[in-house]
Design goal:
Radius of gyration: 16 Å
Low-confidence stretches: none
Strand order of the largest sheet: 1-2
Shape: flat
Number of helices: 1
Distance between the termini: 45 Å
Order of helices and strands: EEH
Mean pLDDT: 78
Structural class: alpha+beta
Oligomer: single chain
Length: 45
């Protein structure tokens, strides 16, 4: 008999007027950034 393995899966949604995007990922880490060009550079790095 095999054992069940559970994995945490996160589903994120990005809502727009005409489309909605969703993505399911396993949780590898977390990052919070400020809105603006400095935050975008940090996210890109």
């Amino acid at each position: 008999m095999s054992e069940a393995r559970f994995t945490n899966i996160i589903v994120g949604f990005d809502t727009h007027k005409h489309t909605h995007a969703a993505v399911a990922i396993t949780r590898l880490g977390e990052l919070t950034i400020r809105v603006g060009s400095d935050g975008c550079r940090k996210l890109d790095a």
